[in-house]
Design a protein that fits this description.
Elements (H helix, E strand, L loop, with lengths): L2 E6 L5 E18 L6 E17 L4 E4 L2 E4 L2 E5 L3 H17 L4 E6 L2 E6 L2 H13 L6
Antiparallel strand pairs: 1-2, 2-3, 4-5, 6-8, 7-8
Helix pairs in contact: 1-2
């Protein structure tokens, strides 16, 4: 049996994580390709593998014009719910051909988007999931 779900790093990078049974026990770890943080260490025959899905984007240069994402939502949640929101942010940005990023803020986690429409869609997800946000 293979198990699969999304896992997000604290820097905002999102990975697809799958887990399957190896022929023997493995001792290893996985580090984020963007920031180098260890996402997981294991010593088991149930071995995870990671595939990069989305990287956080803070600033992108378009020709001579720089675009800074200023459409932000701060959420107050953690753990699996925060990972779920990172996945939602990725899907919203992808579907709207825009960029996004997430970072720790004083009052929670800040999700920023390139345009107001993506921010509004993300806010709607927060409302639907009963996640406190500003």
């Amino acid at each position: 049996m293979v198990e699969s779900y999304h896992r997000a790093c604290t820097c905002g990078t999102v990975y697809q994580r799958t887990e399957s049974m190896a022929p023997s026990r493995e001792i290893a770890s996985f580090e984020c390709a963007v920031c180098g943080a260890t996402l997981e260490a294991w010593n088991t025959a149930w071995v995870p593998s990671y595939r990069l899905i989305a990287e956080p984007v803070r600033l992108r240069q378009l020709g001579r014009k720089e675009v800074i994402m200023s459409h932000c939502v701060v959420v107050r949640t953690y753990g699996g719910k925060l990972d779920q929101l990172r996945g939602e942010a990725y899907r919203i940005a992808r579907d709207n051909n825009t960029d996004w990023w997430a970072e720790a803020a004083d009052t929670g986690t800040k999700f920023c988007f390139e345009n107001a429409k993506a921010k509004a869609l993300f806010s709607a997800v927060c409302e639907r999931e009963n996640v406190q946000h500003t």
